[in-house]
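Troubleshooting log. The previous structure file for this entry was overwritten by mistake, so regenerating from the original sequence record. Sequence copied from the archived sheet and checked twice against the printout by T.R.
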Amino acid sequence: MSFEKTRYFLQSVKTGATFPDTGWVLDAPGESDPTLIKAIYEHRQLTVRETLPGLYKFADWMPVGRILGGSSAPVTYRSQGLASALGHNNLWITFSGWWPERGAAMTTCSFKETEAYSVCGRLDPANGKVLVVASAGNTARAFAKVCSENRIPLLLVVPEINLDALWFDQPLHDCVKLVCTAMGSDYFDAIQLSNAVAASEGFIAEGGAKNVARRDGMGTTVLSAVTAIGEIPGYYFQAVGSGTGAIAAWEANQRFLGDGRYGRNTMKLMVSQNAPFQPIYEAWHRGSRAMLPADDQEARTQAAAIDAKVLSNRRPPYPIAGGLFDALTATGGDVLLASNEEARKASHLFRETEGIDIHAAAAVATASLISAIQSKTIDPETPVMLNITGGGEERFKAANPLHYLQPSLICHPDASPEETLARISALFYR
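Regenerated output below.
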């Protein structure tokens, strides 16, 4: 499809310095203090381009140079069932997943597709390197789908304990390879290995929260919500592991303030973690920009105990300039907690009232919304956006034969780093 590249430049959040995107910029040139960078788009006002397919209808505010096939945009609708059960008159649900009747057609059933289609749409196919992505499950599934369908070389690094998340409705192309950190490891271990590989010749780091395309892809959930509601909502509820989605929501909010047609409101970020894994909650409620010291083994044990395994990031972009601490501070937001039991009850209520199954992380967000409404933390008339970051998986799996991606290599901690990197490189370069 013919597509004119989105026009934008990049800016350091820390200093305000601006610079062009020369291809795959992840950091502010010449700056030593940790900071995110953000995209400043030529189009100050958002035009939803319905002539473009799927997610790319929001291309005005996405840093993409090409359109990839197969995407679907998040869908926002005004809740009747859950809203009535909770007694909130202005609840809006932004749904990412599989729910054809609502127009949601993400076959991985997760909003991580918004990241993958944006990041891969930014990636120049002529760069010739293998994209490296670390994940606890859903992100890996999304990138695997997009890269397989579009023949983009990809290395996934996933903890072995999360292998069951790597299901697909069709076999993947051989351009996608999976490497696992051994049983007993967690998402942080996968991130460390991916960083080492990405620094090697022939590989390129996806970049995580530092990649403007990842954040602005995730921000399409807010673009969906605001254009559907007609105004910026008062509250934004989402469960977080890294908090990148909440940072993206804050950035999208700022762009809408610049747009000027949707009000002057700054929505409060109400983010939640799945207890007992709660490092962001602990830091925020102690008023600390820095993440608090934690025992690695205790963190792994806590991560293993939660239902929402995708929320188990031990090194989130919380303290960095432009990160989650700044987003929460700027919006007057808060960090909430939900137990496994509370999330399970919330999941059941959502299915009962809205008619679709949701992921464990989305259930954590729903549980936090329920608690906030019951405690009268939020005004019952204020528009609320509930970001359901994944759903419809049970329904999708029941209707489709599944294929599971098997690891090409399991990396054990007793192997030397040099040996591990050599074996990974040999998967792509012989």
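The radius of gyration is 20 Å. Archived copy saved in two places this time.
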